[in-house]
Design goal:
This protein is of the alpha/beta class. The protein has 12 helices and 17 strands. A hairpin with a 2-residue loop joins β2 (about 30) and β3 (about 30-35). The chain binds adenosine-5'-diphosphate and magnesium ion (MG). Magnesium ion binds near residues 347, 348 and 349.
Length: about 400
């Protein structure tokens, strides 16, 4: 079932009110928006609806308030959005009795001020839906949560995906839905335990699975390799074995590091050396993939048409242990530029690593969605997306 988009909405929306669920959960420091990425992501949809003559009511959560918390009001975000849109942006405290929206573009107060939001409460959804004629969800990053403003409300009004949501869904579909094969997945990061479902889903879908970062240590330990004092999860050796078996059965080649960069301390510029994984001393810690492993990953990457990447390959915050992540990021960017690779990456630290490599803009798609991106990598249906699929309208 297709997700409907702005293309399915009427061309003329004068006199109509459109409720647009955005992700305005931006970092604010001393009353000022410190990073406008999420506001910029909202602009294409807002501009398009504005051009069609619609009045726009923006719905969003902000932080994690317990009830009404003035420190987590969305009011300060209005000025930043107004500057980007180049027009006045109003504010509506919709929780107040008799609140009625004015024409134009209006930000509604933090949806989480009402406890019904996180309970996906139908009563709250009805109250919000009564404010508008159409519902647009442009917040992929909030789509993994079934909340009143992301899920329940979508069943009460004609519901559509905004342009950012649409772009994200398209990119993710191209990466794991109907991808160009072969597909390579790179999964790194600190722990196996946070990504078991991601790994289990990927082994059934991709030709190559590269495991790096701290989680590779757990896989090495599961094979009886001595990894010194490296970060690993002794409780998940069996998990690692199970995933390796599932990969073998599914015909997915698992790539583990065979050389690594080791140091005595977990800090930037700690004295380090390159070692075979079979020669890690008891007092050493593995902090990155070694150059031979990086080259091997590069060779596999060149044979693939699609890359999905989550999790840095090493302790990338601590140079020079960012070397493997930066090298692979640059290789993937170059292959993407040549047109031989579709590259999709996501995850807070992964995006930071791509930015550090200076190549985030050269990937086919970089998701800033965090939790929603990971749930998608787990192969789960996201309630906020499912609610937008074509259906008989009420
Ligand atoms: P993302 O935010 O992209 O989903 P994660 O949060 O799962 O990624 O993983 C990033 C973290 O993994 C970083 O803080 C990084 O330092 C850590 N990490 C990667 N490799 C190692 C390693 N060998 N030892 C310890 N920590 C590591
Ligand atoms: Mg992280």
């Amino acid at each position: 079932m297709r997700v409907r988009t702005l293309d399915d909405m009427p061309a003329h929306l004068a006199g109509k009110r459109v409720l647009v669920r955005c992700d305005l959960n931006v970092p604010v420091a001393e009353g000022e928006v410190a990073d406008r990425t999420r506001l910029e992501a909202a602009l294409p949809t807002l501009r398009e609806l504005e051009a069609r003559g619609a009045d726009i009511l923006i719905l969003s959560h902000f932080g994690r308030p317990k009830g009404r918390d003035p420190a987590l009001s969305l009011r300060p975000v209005g000025a930043a959005l107004a500057a980007l849109l180049g027009r006045e942006v109003g504010f509506l405290d919709w929780l107040a009795d008799g609140a009625t929206p004015a024409p134009g573009v209006t930000i509604l107060e933090n949806t989480r001020f009402d406890p019904g939001e996180e309970q996906n409460d139908p009563g709250l959804a009805r109250r919000l839906a009564a404010l508008g004629d159409f519902y647009v969800n442009d917040a992929f990053s909030a789509a993994h949560r079934a909340h009143a403003s992301t899920e329940a409300i979508a069943h009460l009004l004609p519901a559509f995906a905004g342009r950012s949501m649409e772009a994200e869904l398209r990119a993710l579909e191209a990466a794991l839905g109907q991808p160009e094969r072969p597909v390579i997945a790179i999964v790194g990061g600190a722990k196996v335990s946070t990504k078991i479902d991601v790994l289990a889903n990927l082994v059934a879908r991709v030709a190559h699975l590269v495991i790096g970062g701290g989680m590779a240590n757990t896989f090495l330990a599961a094979r009886g390799i001595a990894i010194g004092r490296s970060l690993h999860e002794p409780d998940h050796l069996e998990t690692a074995r199970t995933i390796a078996e599932r990969a073998a059965r599914a015909g997915c080649t698992l790539h583990l590091p065979f050389d690594v960069v080791v140091a005595q301390d977990f800090r930037a510029n700690a004295p380090h050396r390159v070692a075979s994984v079979h020669e890690v001393a008891p007092d050493e810690i593995i902090l990155d993939l070694g150059p031979a492993s990086v080259e091997a990953v590069g060779d596999v990457l060149k044979t693939c048409r699609t890359l999905v990447w989550n999790g840095p390959l090493g302790a990338f915050e601590l140079p020079p242990f960012d070397a493997a992540s930066l090298a692979i990021a640059r290789m993937a960017a170059a292959l993407t530029a040549e047109g031989s690779l579709v590259s999709v990456a996501g995850g807070g630290d992964t995006v930071a690593a791509l930015n550090r490599a200076g190549v985030a803009g050269q990937f086919s798609f970089v998701s800033t969605a965090g939790g929603a991106f990971l749930e998608w990598m787990e192969g789960r249906a996201l309630p906020g997306v499912e609610a937008l699929r074509e259906k008989v309208l009420p």
